[in-house]
Design a protein that fits this description.
The structure is a single chain. By secondary structure, the chain is an alpha+beta fold. The protein folds into four domains: 6-132, eRF1 domain 1 (Translation, Eukaryotic Peptide Chain Release Factor Subunit 1, Chain A); 137-168 and 325-397, eRF1 domain 2 (Nucleotidyltransferase, domain 5, 2-Layer Sandwich), CATH 3.30.420.60; 184-317, Endonuclease - Pi-scei, Chain A, domain 1 (Beta Complex); 406-495, 60s Ribosomal Protein L30, Chain: A (2-Layer Sandwich). The protein contains twelve helices and 24 strands. A hairpin with a 2-residue loop joins strand 6 (147-154) and strand 7.
Length: 499
């Protein structure tokens, strides 16, 4: 008897689930791994006497026949198989009055802990179904300063759980951001067009730490020419004209984020001021214009200023402190989502974090994760992606960490098969006829069968493999390699010798 793999067990359980008895005549016998098979045989012999009391002759005969079949089968065992034994037997004929008595015998992939005898209208499958549940999972996190994707590696499946963006903008070249020359800024007691500002003038800006309006000194001023501009119009009737790459400050779910003008959208909320208070205003329209436009920009000590009443970014220097603040807030949000998703997950075996060298290390070394989750971090991997493709890259590059996981095992098995098929085709077999021939010659080292292969064909090939001591691998269709193998026929082998 061969132990079933999880994939094989899943298939046979799906088949067993389809069978329903007309009466309580389908028999389930579960023998736990540590129980004496001979004791079960004696119990079933006793059940035969009980079965004689069943009033319906058809049901009585079906139950008695099933018990006879099981007890005869058990006589071939001197001891219980290593992982126990599950037996399912009964008349499954869809036609009343006809007999189709079948017996399924299963040594499960994990130790069976349940001992059971039951005669019912359906087979008892729950103890075996529990074995199909993944008993350990890994949390995946890929991130950079712009975005993060949280995922779960469950068996062979990579599940995307959440995508997040930070609002922290990429660096913008100095001098690239400009405003219309007649954009006005506020000095202490009057407004002045930005084109008329002088170095050392003090204009209104925002202290993000206190969220208060302050005055900041103008350090530099320059002009430029652009062939495209944006006119941004607000709900109060105000507007501002800027280059496509000027940076504004937008409210987003309670957070303040920097956003380039070209990325602004109708309904976005921007930070503004009436010279006394910090306010929010909604965009109602954005118009792009083409031509030859002279624009002006300035550099301030604080790194931001109010133009036409709207808060805009300094273009020559990045507002480093605010950017860093946004990044830290993003890290805190990531940590909070990781806690929501994984803190109470009993099957979580470990956490793997991927990203550019500084980002993931800042996040992990900054101890943003809850202590319980921080202790479960088993690897940090250098990768470039922070989206769904980054999760796949993370799993591939974390092969040493995930060596025991099914997805990596299957990938390595198929890599070996495809490599042999390409480089040493004389030591491989493909499809049913060629593989069956190799099995009959005893030449097969490893037999590969795709999940869903015709049961009668798979059964025959497995019997041949067992006779010659060949290893049997059932290949899922949940990976790219698994689907590739299925598309090639789903049956193949690596050979011990050329035939």
């Amino acid at each position: 008897m061969t132990k079933y793999t999880k994939l094989e067990l899943e298939e046979v359980l799906q088949e067993l689930e389809k069978h329903k008895g007309r009466h309580t005549e389908l028999i389930t016998v579960l023998i736990s791994a540590d129980y004496d098979v001979n004791s079960v045989s004696r119990q079933l012999e006793a059940e035969k006497s009980t079965a004689k009391n069943i009033k319906s002759s058809a049901t009585r005969n079906n139950v008695t026949d099933a018990l006879d079949k099981i007890t005869r089968f058990l006589k071939g065992f001197k001891k219980t198989p290593e992982n126990g034994l599950a037996l399912f037997c009964g008349n499954i004929s869809p036609v009343e009055g006809q007999s189709d008595l079948q017996l399924w015998d299963i040594e499960p992939p994990l130790a069976l802990k349940t001992r059971l005898y039951r005669c019912d209208k359906e087979f008892v499958l729950a103890p075996l179904k529990e074995m199909l549940e993944v008993d350990e999972v890994f949390a995946l996190l890929v991130m950079d300063r712009k975005e993060a994707t949280i995922g779960l590696l469950e068996g062979k499946r990579i599940i995307v759980m959440q995508k997040m963006s930070s609002g922290v903008p990429s660096k913008v070249r100095a001098g690239g951001q400009c405003l219309s020359p007649d954009s006005w800024v506020s000095l202490n007691n009057k407004n002045r067009d930005i084109a008329d500002l002088k170095i050392n003038d003090k204009i209104r800006a925002l202290d993000f730490k206190s969220n208060k309006i302050i005055f900041t000194k103008v350090k530099n001023k320059w002009g430029s020419v652009k062939n495209k501009i944006l006119e941004i119009i607000f709900e109060d009737g105000g507007s501002i004209i800027s280059s496509l790459d000027h940076t504004f400050f937008r409210k987003n779910k309670g957070y303040v984020e920097e956003v380039i003008a070209r990325d602004l959208r109708k309904e976005d909320i921007l930070i503004c001021s009436n010279n006394h208070d910090v306010l929010d205003l909604k965009i109602i329209s954005i118009k792009e214009k083409e031509g030859n436009f002279k624009l002006v920009d300035i550099e301030t000590e604080k790194g931001n200023f109010f133009a036409n009443g709207f808060l805009v970014h300094n273009s020559s220097q990045r507002f480093h402190r605010i950017t860093e603040g946004l990044t830290k807030e993003f890290y805190k949000r990531i940590a909070e989502e990781m806690k929501k998703n994984f803190f109470e997950m009993p099957k979580l075996k470990g956490i793997i974090v991927g990203g550019p060298v500084p980002t993931k290390d800042e996040f992990l070394d900054g101890e943003y994760l809850a202590t319980k989750l921080g202790e479960k971090v088993i690897g940090r991997v250098d990768i470039g992606g922070s989206d769904e493709s980054g999760l796949k890259e993370l799993v591939v590059k974390a092969q040493d960490i995930l060596a025991s996981q099914e997805i990596i095992k299957e990938k390595k098995l198929l890599e070996r098969f495809f490599e042999t098929l390409g480089e040493k085709p004389y030591l491989s077999a493909l499809r049913e006829e060629e593989t069956g021939k190799a099995l009959k010659y005893g030449a097969v080292d490893t037999l590969f069968l795709s999940k869903g292969t015709d049961k009668s064909i798979a059964s025959e090939l497995k019997k041949l493999a067992e006779k010659t001591g060949a290893k049997i691998e059932i290949i899922s269709t949940e990976t790219e390699e698994g689907m590739q193998f299925k598309n090639l026929g789903g049956i193949g082998a690596i050979l011990r010798f050329r035939i």
